[in-house]
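Entry 14. Two folds queued back to back today. First construct below, sequence then C-alpha cells.
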Amino acid sequence: MKLNIADSFGINLNEAWKEEYKRIGHIYARWGALLVIFLFPLSTIPELSIDKPNLNIWYAFRYGPSVVVGIVFLLHQKFKFSHELLFEIIAFCLFTSAAYMVDCSDWMTYLISMVTVFITSAVLVILRPFYFVINFFAVFLIQILVHTYFCDAGILDYFMMKSVNILIVVGIAAFSMAVFRYYIMKNNFMHRVALQEAHFELQERNQSLIKAQKDLRFKSDQISEQNEELKMQKEEILSQRDAMQSQKEFIEKQNRDIIGSIRYAERIQSAMLPTNAYIKKMLPNSFVLFIPRDIVSGDFYWAAEVNGKKIIAAIDCTGHGVPGAFMSLVGDTNMNQIVLQDGVTDPAEILNKLHFGVSSYLKQSETENQDGMDAAIVVIDEKKKTMRFAGAKNPLVIVKENQEMEIIKGDKMSIGGKRKTNIQDGFISHSIVYNPQDTFYIFSDGYQDQFGGPNDKKFMVRKLRNLLQEVSVKEMNDQYYLLNKRFEEWKQGYSQTDDVLLIGFKIN
C-alpha cells in the first residue's frame, strides 16, 4: 500500500512524512518505555506465590527488562538517538522476559504472555514494517534459545507444541495489524498535508484569477482596437503572400534550371575522370573514395600509363562546386598536355609544369587571381620496382607490411598563385623502393577537415592516419567500405564541409 502523490504543491510529501514519523515515533517510544519500566513489573504479581527453581534467574528475567529499558530510556532522552532503536531494545527485553517460564509445563500462561506482548506491540508501536519483521524473527529465536536451555528440550520439540502454532498465527496477525496501521497513518498524513497545500494553492490561484480578470477586461479593450488594425494588416499580408508565391515559383524554376545545369556539368566532369575499369586495369589492387560536396567537385583524380610507367594523381583545386569544377577542368587539361602529349613522367617536373600551365591559363601574372591546386602524384615503374612521388602540400602515406607508417610530405607550396619561395627551387621528387605488401594512400584534405563527431570538431589528419593504418590489413573493397562508412558516421547529420578524395593502392 503505497501512496503515490506527485510533489506538486511546493512541498516534498515523503520528507514531510519522515519528520512526522520521527515525531510520532518519539512519543510512542517514550510512553512504551515508561509502560515497560513501571507496569511490566506488576505482571509478575501472579508468580510471586509460585515456587521457583532459581530465584535469581526469575528476578533477572522478570525485572531485568524494566531496568535495561529504564537505562536506555534515559540515554535516549539525552542523546536523542533513533526511536526505532529504542523500540527494538524494548521489544527484545519484553520478548526475552516473556520467553522464560517458571513452570515449563504451564504452556497456557506462556502463550497468554507472548500473545499479550505481540498484540501490545502491534497496537502501541508505530514502526516501519522492516523493523516488525526483525521483531517477529527475534521472538522465535529468543524463545527457542530460552526454551531449549531452561526446559531441557530440543528445537524440534519446541515447534511440535500446539501453542507455538497459535503463537505464529497471532504473531503474523499482529505483524499485519502493525503494517496496516503504519500505512494508514502514513496515507492519512500525506493526504492531509496534500489537501492543505492544495487549499493554500487554490487560494493563491483564486487571487491570481481575480487579478487576471481585471487584466483581461483591460486587454479586451485593447484587442478591440487592435482587431481593426489586424483587418487592414490581413489585407496587406494577403497581397504580400500572393507576391511572395509568385516569387517562390520563379525562384523554384530558377533553382531547377540551375540544378539541371549542374547535373549536366556533373556528367561532363564524370566523363573527364578516369573510369573505375581503367583504374582497376592499371592498378588492380586499388580503390578511389570520391565524394563531391555539391554534385560537381573541385577535387579530381587523374591516371595514365605512359612509357611503361603508371601515373596516378589526387588533386585538390581551390573551391568546390561549380568554381572548383572549372578549376578541375583546367587541371585535367594541363595534365593531359604535360603527360600524354609532352611525355613528362617525373612527378616533380609534372607539378612544376602544372604550376606554369595553371598560372598561364588564369593569367595570374596579369590579374589578382590567386586560385590554385594542392596535389599528390605517384609514378610507378614496375620493371625497376621503384616509385617516385612529389606533392604540392599533400603527402604520400605508406603503411608497411609490419604496420609501420611512413609519411612522405609534399613541398610547402601550391600549384598556381604567387609563390613566396624562389621559383627555381620548384618541386622535389622522392624515390621509393616498394614492397608488394605495402599500402599507399594519397588524398585531399576533405576527409580530415570534415566536422562532426560528438563535439562537432574536425576529423583531423592524425585520426585519418590512424584509421588508414587500421584498415590497411583489409582487402581494398573492404577498405573503401570502411572508410566511407566511418566518414558518414562522423558527419552525424552535419553538412559536408568539402569535397573528399582518397585513393588507396598496392603494387603487385
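Second construct, same run, same settings:
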Amino acid sequence: MIIILTGIALTISFIMALYLFSYSYIEAIRISNSDDKVEAGTFIFMSCMAFVFSGFTYVFM
C-alpha cells in the first residue's frame, strides 16, 4: 500500500513540477514582451512552487 501511495505522490509531484515550470516559462515570455509596468508576482510564485514540487519529486523517488 505504501509503494502505491508513493508512486501516486511521485506522479502527482512530477506532473505539477512540469506544469509549474511550463507556466512560469510562458509567464516569463509574456513579461519580457510587455512594454508597460510589470507585476511579476505570478512568475515568482510559480517558479518557487516549481522548485518545491521538484524537491517533492526527489523525496518520493
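Quick look at the second one. The helical segments are 2-32, 41-60. The mean pLDDT is 92.
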